[in-house]
Specification:
The protein is α/β, with parallel strands linked by helices and about 220 residues long. It has one domain: Alanine racemase (TIM Barrel, Alpha-Beta Barrel), CATH 3.20.20.10. The chain is about 40% helix and about 20% strand. Strand 6, helix 8 and strand 7 form a beta-alpha-beta unit.
Length: about 220
């Protein structure tokens, strides 16, 4: 069995059965995605709209595409017809655009709020207070074609294990609160370098790129 398939099954075997793996296929070629597809995997994450659209057009239509990158407001309309889950909502304006476009396609788009849990400049996200403001906003509660079902966050890349644990704990705490208040059921946290810790702190979805595919390749 080839390396990609070996890595996938090795990781799958090492984690609880209820944990969902999101294969981060950014900058990966079509053949790598197809290899995971052939062994039954369906959930893939992309950072950029244009790259996602190109892959969507060429790959099987039962793939579940996840948007995990920074939202480009003017491009949201292009992914609404087929997107499975948007992990990176940070503004009520994002939800308004998604809701408007989803109405045109008679869809309800599921979304996560991206929470900033570390201090690294490269990591985006909103504060807990900003998240509360969105969840309690009357504008959101009148939307019929978008639904927030959980939270996403990224821990420090270069932080100590203790720091990463603290960051994941902070997101877990907010998630537990939202589970009760808003029936949230997805906590998307953990990447190739820290997913075992994320699982320890309650992650339901882990986002794996290099640990699955190895070094990124051009499409």
């Amino acid at each position: 069995m080839k390396n990609l398939e070996c890595r996938f099954f090795s990781i799958k075997k090492s984690i609880p059965k209820n944990i969902e793996i999101l294969a981060v296929s950014k900058n990966q070629n079509l053949s790598s995605i197809e290899r995971l597809y052939q062994i039954g995997h369906r959930d893939f994450g992309e950072n950029y709209v244009q790259e996602m659209i190109q892959k969507y057009k060429k790959l099987p239509k039962d793939i579940r595409w996840h948007m995990i990158g920074v939202i480009q407001k003017n491009k949201l309309k292009y992914i609404v017809p087929f997107i499975h889950l948007i992990h990176s909502v940070q503004k009520i304006e994002h939800l308004q655009i998604i809701n408007k476009e989803a109405f045109k396609h008679n869809r309800v788009i599921k979304c996560l709020l991206q929470i900033k849990i570390c201090n690294e400049i490269s990591k985006t996200g909103i504060t807990n207070q900003e998240s509360d403001n969105i969840m309690n906003n009357d504008i959101y509660h009148h939307m019929k074609n978008v639904k927030i079902i959980g939270l996403m966050g990224m821990a420090s890349i270069h932080g100590s294990t203790q720091k990463i644990k603290h960051e994941f704990f902070s997101l877990k705490k907010l998630y537990k609160e939202y589970q009760i208040k808003y029936q949230h059921h997805i906590l998307s946290m953990g990447m190739s370098n820290d997913y075992p810790i994320a699982i320890e702190y309650g992650s339901t979805h882990i986002r794996l790129g290099t640990s699955l595919f190895g070094k990124r390749k051009l499409p």
